[in-house]
Amino acid sequence: MKIAIIGAGFGGMAAAYDLRNAGHEVTIYESAGYVGGLASGFKEPHWDWSVEKFYHHWFQSDRYMLGLIRELGWEKMVLFPRPLTVMYHDGKFYPFDSIMKALLFPGLGFGLDKIRFGFVGLFLRLTNNWKALEKVTADSWMMKWAGKNVYEKMWKPLLVGKFGPFYRDVNMAWMWARIKARTTRLGTFEGGFQNFASLFGEKLRGMRVRIRLGAIVESIKREQDQLWVRSDGKDEAYDQVLVTTSPNLLAKLSPDLPENYLKGLLELKSMGAVVMVMSLRHQLSKEGYYWFNLPKEEGYPFLALVEHTNFVSKDHFGGDHIVYAGDYLEVGHEYFSMSEEQLLERFLPALKKFNPEFSREWVKKVWVFKTNYAQPVPLVDHSKNIPAIQTPIEGLYFASMSQVYPWDRGTNFAVEIGRRAARLMLGEKN
Ligand SMILES: Cc1cc2nc3c(=O)[nH]c(=O)nc-3n(C[C@H](O)[C@H](O)[C@H](O)COP(=O)(O)OP(=O)(O)OC[C@H]3O[C@@H](n4cnc5c(N)ncnc54)[C@H](O)[C@@H]3O)c2cc1C
Question: Which residues line ligand 1 (CB under 6 A)?
Fold first, then answer.
């Protein structure tokens, strides 16, 4: 068969790998000038490693991604350091990445709240019954079982940070999946995620997958028993097409989809993200903390501060210290229309809270990355609203972040759904 894949993110590339291995002729259309999608990175001339545009790491439980890397023979290039994640309490940050550290965290006191926190965490780790949990909101479930204090201190800031105005609507299965599938050791790839993506791209090219960079797909139509992919004003015919972009974009590319499928795509909610990357002359967190969880009500202008070079060595970046400041936001939020300079002005004062010695002169360079589609929002009974991978148009398939539910989006699940889509396209049982 002749197959087109729209998008050279990890989902699209994983699907291409399996489809090509099964003997098919595969072409990937990628609108950007590079592979890697949301997990792509960039590099300054004096850096040996790339930096992800949006902070990225793997968990030890990311079996689909780690399995693919093993198949490709690159497991020696995966690194799993143990960086420090911290929680805010009363103007200070406390390590919070092991049971022992959680027990010592002063934010919950040392009485009943801590016991409730522990039991809720244990229950969520042990249960597999997410179908029951998707019927209630995380807000109401946590209030009931963890209690007001624990919820407001620990879990509400996470929900508010990720989902903004939708935080009360997100279902409890999302929270379950987060707690279930995460580990304290965090992983990356030698050279950065972009190095992995580029190596994977090269591997695919070596297998004679055609990767067309800078190729924006404009429409996909079914005519004369074939699917016609239009890019740069030209149509090319395929037997099958797999789209790995956002649901909104699929709806635009293929308006001939039946109304109920289109409606389902357009009703899916998601958050965008705005992330600033800074290279600094000095280390920001003297304690060497990697990930700061920040409660919005404390007035931070961003949700997460991540000092990448407290995860991987600054030596890979010519001695620069790399810091991210990022937030998940609705697409109309003012950050989307602010310039780099304006955002920097907004963010700079907050950096002193992490190190009082910080000053503007520390900042060598700044980059800002924005995406409209960063985090799907799963509402109550969300499993009923997931669009099928096999669309109602014959030969047209769709695999996106919005369909990996109940799991939270991530490169691991992009690989999983990309490979699942490939199996469906090959007519194999999933
Ligand atoms: C802020 C942030 C932090 C994250 N942190 C992590 C993390 O720590 N760990 C982790 O594993 N994951 C993380 N993720 C999620 C991860 O990046 C995604 O789940 C994953 O990259 C999705 O891969 P994909 O192939 O499904 O989609 P994408 O990577 O979005 O790929 C889709 C591709 O389609 C291309 N495209 C779009 N329109 C067109 C068109 N018209 N024609 C041709 N091509 C087109 C795009 O350019 C893109 O390359 C994070 C994401 C964000 C936004």
Answer: 6-12, 29-32, 37-39, 54-58, 216-217, 244-245, 249, 273, 275, 326, 371, 374, 400-401, 409-412, 414
